[in-house]
Structures are given as structure tokens and as C-alpha cells.
């Protein structure tokens, strides 16, 4: 019997979380100390639940990261460092999308173009190849696909359904139809179907509406999604339209999804620029959920929604305000690796 490879749901068992440490050669340089503090909080939260594989540019960056994490009391036994070149630290988009058939693993390596050519991404595009060369993934197969796609642009329910946004993929591939892109995604992930959202965006998000800033699959056929309850906010109408779209989606067996709307945080403006403070950009780990917090009264309500959508998991908040300065949050910086996919 032929085993079928699939893209697991994020809430399935994990071997660890992959991140890359910020340093003076990344876009974090002007606020490096501030973002390092945020990273210590993020890695510390993840390490409570499972191992963290930390990419570092060189030995100096490794020593700096190890020192900061040790000073914060993060368990060193939960950390593993690997030296590898990278342009920046958004590993949701440059890291591997790992398929499994229950025994073996396949690292799907799409072309990374710096979010449609907005930023330099040559080293990030070679990141997966470099990690494979360092033996990080053991015997996992490495499959390169010469087609632009970032991990933050798709959601998987682990059962053959992919959720994505037309705004993002149409920007990356304007010459392709929706049907052509659906077929390519189904083939690449051995999926049964692709669900598309046409509406939804966030100011301060330069990914062209990645799905992981807007809507997330959750267990038992649920979708957690960002809403806006302020009629004066420019997002109000667009996110209301997205809500309607999500409500019209159906599971593979024809039932409505269970809807879990997230509250809206007050606008965060940095040097005149609105930042994307989405609660949907959370990371699911073994036994927990690490969620972005924005110093807002809505933080606690968002945690309640996320906890209800992911029962049995502890919700841990991390201050994401230093992170959204560079247009991403908790989920954007991290990539989960399925249980068994890492080399011993």
C-alpha cells in the first residue's frame, strides 16, 4: 500500500521550532537590543514546551544568543544552535514546509523571493539547502520547487485542505489563474483542495496578506480569524467581508467551520507608520500556544479565544511590539518541525 505524504496541521506533535537569531547584519540592526529582548522572551516561551533550533550567522552571534538566553534562565538543554547564512529572520517564509507519510519526511523548498522582490533574499532562498547540508534533518528528502511561495501564505488542516489568500499568490504569480495555482498547491502538498480568501489585509504587513496574519485552522474544524470592531478603522469593512467569506467556507464533508473571531487591538503607530498587530499570528507548540501581545486590553480576550480554539494547551503571551516594527510577529519568525523530522 502506498503511503501518502501530507502537510501536518500545526497542532500535531512536533520535534522542535526553528528560528534565526537577529544580528547587526539584519534589518533589526537599528533596534537590535530591543528585539533581542523580545527574542529572549519568545525563545524562552517556546523552550518551556519543546526544543528550539536556533540559526546563528557565526560564532559571535551564537555566543551572544546563548549568553542572553542563559541570563534569562532559558534551559540550555532545550536549545540547539546551527551556524548558517541568512538575510533576515522570518523563517516562517524561508524555512522548510515538512510533509510526512507517518514514517518518512519530505522538506518542500519553494523559491523565496523576498516577498515578491521587495527585499533581498538570496541567502534565505538557500537556507533549507544549507540546513540539509549540515545534517539537521537526518534522512528527510529535500524537494526543491521552482515556484515562489512563503510558508506564511498557507494553512493546512492536516487532512488535505489548504487555506490561502488570492491577494498574496496573485501578486507572486499574476500570469497564473486560480485554478492553475490550486492544482500546483494540491500537487506540491498532496492535498485534496485549496480554499481561497479574496478579502482581508492589514496595514503594516508587507507580505501581501499572508493567511497567517488573518485566519488560522484549529482542531475540530475551526477557523480562528482576526476581526475589527471599530467602524472608524480602515480595516473594518475589509475584515467584515473576510468574516463573511470564512462563514461561507465548508469542510471537506460539507459542514460549516466553527468560527472563532479574535478581538481587535488599538492601532500601534511607529514613526507615523501603522503596524500590523494581529492576534492571528500565534504559534502552536506541544502543549501550548505562544501568542503575540500588544499591551492592549484586548490581549486577554484574544488569549481566551485562542485557548478555547486549542483546548488543553496553555496560552503564553509574549510582547510582540518590538517585532511588528519589522512587519511580522510570532508566527512569522518561527517554523515548526514535525515530530521525528530532526536528526538526533
From TrEMBL:
Q: Does the keyword Hydrolase apply?
A: yes
SUPFAM superfamilies linked to this entry: Pentein
Q: Kindly state which keywords UniProt assigns to this record, in alphabetical order.
A: Hydrolase
**Keyword RNA-binding assigned:** no
Q: What is the protein name stated in its UniProt record?
A: Agmatine deiminase family protein
Amino acid at each position: 500500500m502506498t503511503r501518502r505524504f501530507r502537510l501536518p496541521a500545526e497542532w500535531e506533535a512536533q520535534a522542535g521550532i526553528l528560528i534565526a537569531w537577529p544580528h547587526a547584519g539584519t534589518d533589526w540592526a537599528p533596534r537590535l537590543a530591543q528585539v533581542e529582548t523580545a527574542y529572549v522572551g519568545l525563545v524562552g516561551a517556546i523552550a518551556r514546551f519543546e526544543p528550539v533550533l536556533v540559526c546563528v550567522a557565526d560564532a559571535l552571534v551564537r555566543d551572544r544568543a546563548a549568553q542572553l538566553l542563559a541570563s534569562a534562565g532559558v534551559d540550555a538543554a532545550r536549545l540547539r544552535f546551527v551556524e548558517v547564512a541568512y538575510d533576515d529572520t522570518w523563517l516562517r517564509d524561508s524555512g522548510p514546509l515538512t510533509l510526512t507519510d507517518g514514517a518518512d519526511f519530505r522538506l518542500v523548498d519553494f523559491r523565496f523571493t523576498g516577498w515578491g522582490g521587495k527585499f533581498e533574499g538570496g541567502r534565505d532562498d538557500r537556507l533549507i539547502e544549507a540546513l540539509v547540508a549540515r545534517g539537521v534533518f537526518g534522512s528527510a528528502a529535500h524537494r526543491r520547487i521552482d515556484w515562489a511561495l512563503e510558508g506564511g501564505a498557507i494553512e493546512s488542516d492536516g487532512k488535505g485542505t489548504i487555506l490561502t489568500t488570492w491577494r498574496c499568490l496573485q501578486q507572486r504569480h499574476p500570469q497564473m489563474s486560480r485554478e492553475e495555482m490550486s492544482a500546483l498547491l494540491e500537487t506540491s502538498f498532496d492535498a485534496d483542495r485549496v480554499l481561497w480568501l479574496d478579502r482581508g489585509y492589514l496595514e503594516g504587513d508587507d507580505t501581501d496578506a499572508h493567511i497567517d496574519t488573518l485566519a488560522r485552522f484549529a482542531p475540530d474544524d475551526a477557523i480562528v480569524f482576526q476581526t475589527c470592531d471599530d467602524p472608524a478603522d480602515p480595516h473594518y469593512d475589509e475584515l467584515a467581508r473576510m468574516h463573511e467569506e470564512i462563514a461561507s467556507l465548508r469542510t471537506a464533508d460539507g459542514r460549516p467551520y466553527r468560527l472563532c473571531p479574535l478581538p481587535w487591538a488599538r492601532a500601534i503607530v511607529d514613526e507615523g507608520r501603522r503596524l500590523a498587530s494581529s492576534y492571528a499570528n500565534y504559534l502552536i507548540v506541544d502543549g501550548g500556544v505562544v501568542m503575540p501581545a500588544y499591551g492592549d486590553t484586548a490581549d486577554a480576550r484574544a488569549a481566551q479565544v485562542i485557548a478555547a480554539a486549542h483546548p488543553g494547551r496553555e496560552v503564553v503571551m509574549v510582547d510582540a511590539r518590538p517585532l511588528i516594527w519589522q512587519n511580522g510577529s510570532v508566527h512569522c519568525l518561527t517554523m515548526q518541525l514535525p515530530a521525528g523530522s530532526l536528526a538526533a
